[in-house]
Amino acid sequence: MKGICILGATGSIGVSTLDVVARHPDKYQVVALTANGNIDALYEQCLAHHPEYAVVVMESKVAEFKQRIAASPVADIKVLSGSEALQQVATLENVDTVMAAIVGAAGLLPTLAAAKAGKTVLLANKEALVMSGQIFMQAVSDSGAVLLPIDSEHNAIFQCMPAGYTPGHTAKQARRILLTASGGPFRRTPIETLSSVTPDQAVAHPKWDMGRKISVDSATMMNKGLELIEACLLFNMEPDQIEVVIHPQSIIHSMVDYVDGSVLAQMGNPDMRTPIAHAMAWPERFDSGVAPLDIFEVGHMDFEKPDLKRFPCLRLAYEAIKSGGIMPTVLNAANEIAVEAFLNEEVKFTDIAVIIERSMAQFKPDDAGSLELVLQADQDAREVARDIIKTLVA
Fold this sequence. Notes:
With 394 residues, this protein is of the alpha/beta class. 45% of the residues lie in helices and 15% in strands. It is globular.
């Protein structure tokens, strides 16, 4: 039986992971669950799965959570607090597998700690890899950690790679990756009306049940931009070898084009339990709870090129990865600040790309060879983005 730590247990990926764990109690034991501030959901998860540790990052919620656990049937659970505790539970000796599902830059340090500790890292936090790039991949290589992608697209690409393939290496026979995207809720919305989009409209994804931040990223296609950068690192390919394809049915999760003309595609119903179960069972397979795909019900599948005028965030992601250095970090940091401002109704939907582009213009693609440089670039870009937002709302 393997011990698992779930970073971000109360988010959609964490909830789906626990659903898969519950189907295979003979294979996985929950060692640690973490949450930012959703203590109601974390409490229910603790009752159901009885982990050894529970982490609440938001200090203002810790005392109440400790009281509830102390008065519960699972009073022996050790409750930890603060962001440093995330690294502690991700590197516990009895943790074999770490599900890295914290959204945003907050997931970088605990995910990197798990990689350095040689854990099997199930990577759902794309920002950790986007920010730290080769630092993260080098940590995996140095420690002997196993890195398995959880994003449906990257997991699909991994499944389509040759037998024995290891992330971080080049599959010599693969010449191109076709990275699929749903196109989000505004694929057909007139461009001139996008400035009036509300946060509630932006988070209403047509296919996937995701958190608010990720849903906005999907609506701007920054989510796909971050996945593009992640794919370059995971599969050691150049940006020009990765083509984004809008596929609104979300049945094909991505494809790999080989030198002999073969194109392999991974298909399935749009349910994150499929890639989660694939990674948890790898190199074998077990039940995920996902209904079988009814290809006759699907009926047909559509594909189209993304319009970079409609989705400027995707263009900015291509520019960031081609520039290299700290630019992907700057892109990600500015995006997080811009999306937060949009969700708080401080800026317009179309301002998100404006904030990111203006932020990137104030940086050069300097070296990102150390964690300190990456974290500094992240902080600097956030400050620049905040200043730009002030000029937009003035």
